[in-house]
Amino acid sequence: MAELVHLDVAGGVGTITLDSPTNRNALSAALRRDLAAHLATAIDDDAVRVIVLTHTGDVFCAGADLKEARGADADTQGVGELPDLLVSLMSAPKPVVAKVTGTARAGGIGLVAACDLAVAADDVTFAFPEVRLGLVPAVISVPLRRRVHPQALRRLFLTGEVFDAAAAVRIGLLDASVARDGLGEELARYTDALLRGAPRALAATKAVLADPPDEDARELEVLGRLSAAHFASAEGQEGLAAFAQKRPPSWAPSN
Question: Contact, 18 vs 60, CB < 8 A?
């Protein structure tokens, strides 16, 4: 089976690339597995001083793989694996930078928020569509509450409305948004600065800034069960079916 995530190391930077554009880099079981493996490799590799998370295609990450989630129960649909990925990103002893050149939705935004820094092209958009599908943005709330202004997060979680990169900077989700042709230079500005930091000092500084790891793990375990239950619920399955059939779900206005 073709690898859905790649790792390339050069000049102290380990670049992890989501490469499943045919399903919008959705968090399928295969992509989650490959991402976890490459992240672990980058963390363990002394040649990697900074990790960059990026993607191919027009979508950074669409969130959960909704095709896999349809008809699956809470134990088999794999939502419980996302907390482990978020913990790995947040607790990595090396700085992690997200480079976003395409749309991000739901769990894809959770990946961005779990990184230490995030930069994006100024024409990309973001949204949390979970409630419109009968789902709950539970697990991703952990890294997002660290970054995003509380009232902005409340509004965006509850409405599911689309917002642009400029708004993402204002609310704290992104550190910078720049013209697409200048994104490489902006990313290099951050990675060059991070490479100037001493590896142990950077790791210790991240530890100082982090919440206690046990608290994160416990909270993510609880929220993972909540998220899985809503995926498997009648409401969640109706939302997923409506999305697949391109129709409004039963609770939404038909116009």
Answer: yes
The Cβ-side half-sphere exposure at 86, using a 13 Å CA radius, reads 33
- Taking residue 232's Cβ as centre, other Cβ atoms within 10 Å add up to 18
- As given in the structure block, the two tokens for residue 138 are 């539970």
Residue 124, H or E segment: none
On whether the CB atoms of residues 68 and 29 are closer than 8 A, the answer is yes
Domain count, the chain: 1
pLDDT in tens, 112-157: 999 999 999 999 999 999 999 999 999 999 999 999 999 999 999 9
Six token digits for residue 32: 């989650």
Residue 238 inside a domain? The answer is yes
Partner residues linked to 119 by β-bridges: 99, 176
Q: In what order do the strands lie in the sheet with 50-55?
A: 5-10, 13-18, 50-55, 96-100, 117-121, 176-178
Assessment of whether the complete model's pTM goes beyond 0.85: yes
pLDDT in tens, 202-217: 999 999 888 766 666 7
228: domain CATH number is: 3.90.226.10
Alpha helices, DSSP H, located in the chain: 29-44, 66-69, 81-91, 107-114, 141-147, 150-159, 165-171, 183-195, 199-209, 213-232, 234-245
- Whether residue 67 lies inside any domain: the answer is yes
Residue 193 inside a domain? The answer is no
The total number of residues written for the chain in this structure = 255
Q: Which of 23, 104, 115 has its CA nearest to residue 69?
A: 23
Task: Establish if 166 belongs to a structural domain.
Answer: yes
